[in-house]
Inverse folding.
């Protein structure tokens, strides 16, 4: 067993800094590169792409990236784990095999984890007495069944562990928890048992710290953002992990950013609920047991973590169509910028009323004044300019379309010194809503396939 | 004495559906008891009046000198349903830090903004 495994975060979301994973493999030693590509909205976008072309449905950026780093990861024996397979890990693997052939590389073993896509099984589950009720509202799935676009189970670390066990040096998954991507190599390398809940929790916390990339190493840092060195060249976080479950968060020497008690704590409290019960398919981690110890510049030791047994359920995320929205903006300049924007809003609403259009919601925000902090915003004093932003939502596509035609007329038929309409008419976009549910673990089985080419 | 929360704490916020989470972290160990004592659920509910339309929950993480708040129904429906510019509640952390407190204790505070 290796005494220490270095796991590096390469992407915090699809659209993250493209140079980050390249820096992680070139600027210092690492054993694993883990990359998270899947937000909830991503799955339905990928599902749509796959429906149009069965060869699509994965994070295409991943293929370009792999083409660039393949020779290096082969040379340095770095393993890659990512959920960028989206709704089509098979096609993603094929694209990476093709990239490998172009680079003249042979003998690459790539594992895929699938089986998370349960769109075709929903009716069977419902008929079999699995209600897939909305976890938050308790509603029955029947109310939206016909509108479901995608349905995916969140698998945890274990399918990845199995692929690594079969010798995969790259593992591409569909919907997998972000934390599972990091926990898996720790289980694989250190031979942890699945019911060693404290170690499962430790690896899960390491995953939570790595899953948002630079947000743990000085990005989006509220305590002292001006004090973070060289954000232009921010180093993404690396976890140096040990067999006993302790780990050290650090980053490559010479990179920008900062790893400190404060930068990591901000990430630890990001998007958590009850800190005693951070639930994943692998365990329930207790965030109130995490102990942090600064042991040097850009080195933070994390230890003491305990956990409890995992639950009997997988979380399922379904996406369904739920109406249309459109957002229009116009910019008003001094003098009386705020007053003009408010007057324009009132004129617009009167015209929408006159047209007899019905919306589920019409929302007005004044960017430069109250769009972020709403009623907490400080009183405006003679603003230089303000952006009027009006959004509408309706199940009536025609109403949303018509709204889009009412923004531009305000330029010549409303208050003066107005600009910022270069983008054209606001177009309706489909609302993709989410339906979180629980599925008994026995109802679905992950499928693991490791192939060499 | 009168203190601004931004001088004794930092914060990060995010989303889960229509619920925003705001983690508030003491800048020094001696400030953490002040957060526990003064950032009550009632106080935070009042602060976010008109923003958080549902309940407010509070959790303590003394090991991280932090409190975690859940602000329910704070994101206009959340995700792509929301018409808010900040549909993911990314700026609610700094909205939290607008709080000002009158405290019984005397502490040394350095202005942060």
């Amino acid at each position: 067993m290796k005494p220490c495994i270095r796991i590096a975060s390469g992407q915090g979301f699809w659209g993250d800094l493209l140079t980050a994973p390249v820096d992680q493999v070139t600027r210092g030693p690492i054993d694993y590169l883990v990359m998270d590509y899947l937000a909830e909205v991503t799955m339905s976008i990928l599902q749509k792409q796959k429906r149009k072309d069965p060869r699509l449905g994965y994070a295409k950026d991943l293929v370009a990236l792999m083409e660039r780093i393949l020779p290096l990861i082969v040379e340095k024996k770095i393993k890659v784990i990512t959920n960028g397979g989206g709704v089509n890990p098979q096609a993603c693997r094929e694209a990476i095999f093709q990239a490998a052939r172009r680079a003249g590389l042979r003998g690459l073993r790539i594992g895929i984890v699938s089986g998370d896509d349960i769109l075709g099984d929903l009716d069977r589950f419902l008929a079999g007495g699995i209600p897939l009720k909305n976890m938050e509202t308790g509603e029955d799935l029947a109310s939206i069944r016909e509108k479901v676009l995608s349905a995916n189970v969140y698998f945890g670390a274990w399918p990845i562990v199995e692929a690594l066990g079969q010798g995969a040096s790259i593992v591409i998954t569909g919907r997998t928890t972000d934390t599972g991507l990091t926990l898996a190599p720790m289980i694989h390398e250190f031979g942890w048992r699945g019911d060693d809940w404290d170690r499962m929790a430790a690896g899960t916390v390491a995953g939570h710290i790595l899953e948002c990339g630079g947000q743990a190493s000085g990005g989006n840092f509220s305590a002292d953002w001006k004090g973070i060195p060289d954000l232009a060249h921010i180093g993404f976080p690396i976890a140096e992990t040990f067999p006993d479950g302790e780990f050290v968060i650090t980053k490559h020497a010479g990179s920008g950013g900062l790893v400190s008690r404060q930068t990591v704590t901000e990430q630890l409290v990001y998007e958590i609920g009850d800190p005693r019960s951070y639930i994943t398919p692998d365990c329930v981690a207790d965030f109130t047991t995490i102990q942090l110890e600064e042991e040097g510049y850009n080195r933070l030791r994390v230890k003491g973590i305990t956990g409890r047994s995992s639950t009997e359920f997988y979380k399922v995320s379904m996406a369904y169509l739920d109406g249309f929205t459109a957002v229009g903006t116009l910019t008003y300049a001094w003098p009386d910028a705020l007053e003009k924007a408010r007057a324009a809003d009132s004129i617009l609403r009167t015209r929408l009323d006159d047209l007899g259009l019905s919306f589920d919601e019409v929302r007005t925000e004044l960017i430069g004044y109250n769009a972020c902090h709403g009623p907490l915003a400080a009183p405006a004093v003679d603003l230089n300019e303000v952006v009027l932003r009006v959004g509408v939502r309706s199940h009536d596509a025609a109403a949303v379309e018509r709204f889009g035609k009412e923004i531009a007329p305000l330029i010549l038929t409303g208050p003066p010194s107005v600009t910022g309409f270069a983008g054209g008419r606001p177009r309706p976009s489909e609302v993709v809503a989410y339906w979180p549910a629980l599925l008994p673990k026995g109802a679905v089985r992950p499928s693991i396939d490791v192939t060499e080419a | 004495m009168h203190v601004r929360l931004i001088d004794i704490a930092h914060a990060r916020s995010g989303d889960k559906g229509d619920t925003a989470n705001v983690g508030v972290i003491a800048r020094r160990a001696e400030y953490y008891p002040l957060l526990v004592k003064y950032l009550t659920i009632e106080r935070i509910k009042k602060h976010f009046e008109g923003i958080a339309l549902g309940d407010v929950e509070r959790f303590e993480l003394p090991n991280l000198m932090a409190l975690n708040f859940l602000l329910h129904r704070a994101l206009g429906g959340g995700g792509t349903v929301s018409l808010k510019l900040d549909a993911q509640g990314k700026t609610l952390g700094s909205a939290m830090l607008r709080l000002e407190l009158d405290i019984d204790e005397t502490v040394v505070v350095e202005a942060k903004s």
Summary: The interface with chain A takes residues 10-12, 14-17, 21, 23, 25, 27, 47-51, 59-66, 68, 70, 76, 78-81, 83-86, 91, 93-95, 97-98, 112 of chain B (CB under 8 Å).
